[in-house]
């Protein structure tokens, strides 16, 4: 059953996205990616031409793809820049093997910086390994132009069909659908970026929602940018020279929009828990460890998506991304958490040798045990709270009980 969010939920999500956008330093990341884009555009175009020239069916569509990209992703003011880039890429194709290799490395570095910015938003501790990242980047560089060429061919085919069936389309829906093609193409591109680039599992549904919203904002921004530039005196004063700074400004705005879309996609996954503020860090940490321990007994992992979305906390709540990230880092520091694969975790040590007192020392502060609710809690939770409260009033020796002993026989609720 699909749950439609209320206006209040949407406003809360918007405030959360704005907060995360600032906290993640997206404006600085956008500036860095803009600077990198300045050096990577020509290498990317050169690699695209080289890949397409290797496929006989696509040898003549390189220019068409470039025009398609500039028509749909760049405002109308970018015509001069397109001419410059075409000339530069044509010169670059005359380079030797060493020069071509350098261009390829530059393009890969651009993709690596994009992945780094996305991983910072998703709070991923590790980037992809060398071989894994190389295969991903090479797949993007090699298959990307081919898929764009296929999309271009499909679009041409659809246009021909619209001409053939023009007499059948009495309500005129064909032109409207064709007018939506740029938006759908942009949405598909953003969805693919949000789903594939972060070094963790991103639900395709969330990536699709983020892709559709980001594409809409992108199209509106493109129209607004074109309107503002067309009605100012930049062209009159600077002439064609104005194209370069305006193009860089557009690249910067584009990266701001893309990173905002990434924050939105991550927020959709991690914003499902609004009640976890009722629980202290100690309660949250104990609950996470208990979940890891239970899964360890079953030979299973715990996914980050499960922690952020499913009601695993006392069978009623999840944990927000803001709470999860610092607690995750502490669990890694204490050796209680290990990465199984992208976005999945396992218990990192034997809990028979790890006591409540060890956990308190790891947390680095006096523990709080508020649960924020009068509802029945699991038996292991009551055991932990009782021992912590006793320790506050007497001595710390009572906390030398292994966590595994506290978590055992957890079939009842207190």
UniProtKB/TrEMBL annotation:
Organism listed in the record: Oceanicoccus sagamiensis
Keywords tagged on the record = Cell inner membrane, Cell membrane, Membrane, Transmembrane, Transmembrane helix
* Family membership noted in the UniProt record: Belongs to the UPF0761 family.
Enumerate the InterPro entries for this protein.
UPF0761_bac (IPR023679), Virul_fac_BrkB (IPR017039)
Keyword Iron in the entry? The reply is no
Q: Cellular component per GO? A: plasma membrane
Give a single Pfam family match. Answer: Virul_fac_BrkB
Q: Where exactly are the transmembrane stretches of this chain? A: 30-52, 95-114, 135-160, 180-200, 207-225, 237-265
UniProt protein name: UPF0761 membrane protein BST96_12695
Q: Where in the cell is it found?
A: Cell membrane
- For the keyword Cell inner membrane, the answer is yes
């Amino acid at each position: 059953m699909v749950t439609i969010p209320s206006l209040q939920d949407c406003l809360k999500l918007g405030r959360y996205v704005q907060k995360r956008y600032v906290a993640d330093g997206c404006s600085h990341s956008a500036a860095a990616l803009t600077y990198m884009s300045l050096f990577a555009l020509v290498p990317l175009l050169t690699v695209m031409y080289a890949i397409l020239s290797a496929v006989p069916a696509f040898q003549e569509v390189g220019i068409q793809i470039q025009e398609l990209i500039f028509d749909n992703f760049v405002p109308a003011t970018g015509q001069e820049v397109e001419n410059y880039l075409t000339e530069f890429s044509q010169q670059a194709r005359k380079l030797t093997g060493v020069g071509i290799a350098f261009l390829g490395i530059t393009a890969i570095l651009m993709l690596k910086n994009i992945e780094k910015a996305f991983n910072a938003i998703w709070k991923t501790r590790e980037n992809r390994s060398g071989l894994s990242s190389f295969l991903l980047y090479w797949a993007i560089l090699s298959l990307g132009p081919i898929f764009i060429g296929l999309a271009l061919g499909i679009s041409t085919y659809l246009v021909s069909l619209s001409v053939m069936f023009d007499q059948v389309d009495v309500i005129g829906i064909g032109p409207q659908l064709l007018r939506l093609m740029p938006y759908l193409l942009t949405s598909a591109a953003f969805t693919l970026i949000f789903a594939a680039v972060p070094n963790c599992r991103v639900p395709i549904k969330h990536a699709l929602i983020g892709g559709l919203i980001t594409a809409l904002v992108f199209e509106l921004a493109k129209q607004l940018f074109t309107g503002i530039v067309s009605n100012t005196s930049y062209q009159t004063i600077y002439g064609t020279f104005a194209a370069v700074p305006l193009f860089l400004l557009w690249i910067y705005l584009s990266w701001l929009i893309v990173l905002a879309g990434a924050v939105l996609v991550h927020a959709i996954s991690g914003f499902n828990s609004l009640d976890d503020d009722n629980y202290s860090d100690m309660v949250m940490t104990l609950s996470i460890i208990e979940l890891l321990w239970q899964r360890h007994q079953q030979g299973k992992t715990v996914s980050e998506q499960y922690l952020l979305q499913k009601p695993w906390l006392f069978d009623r709540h999840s944990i927000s991304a803001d709470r999860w990230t610092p607690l995750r880092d502490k669990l890694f520091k204490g050796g209680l958490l290990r990465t199984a694969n992208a976005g999945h975790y396992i218990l990192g040590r034997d809990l028979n040798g790890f006591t409540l007192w060890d956990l308190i020392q790891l947390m680095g502060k006096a523990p709080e045990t508020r649960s924020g609710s009068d509802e029945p809690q699991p038996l292991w939770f009551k055991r932990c709270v009782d021992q912590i409260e006793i320790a506050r009033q007497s001595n710390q020796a009572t906390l030398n009980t292994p966590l595994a002993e506290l978590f055992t026989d957890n079939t009842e609720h207190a």
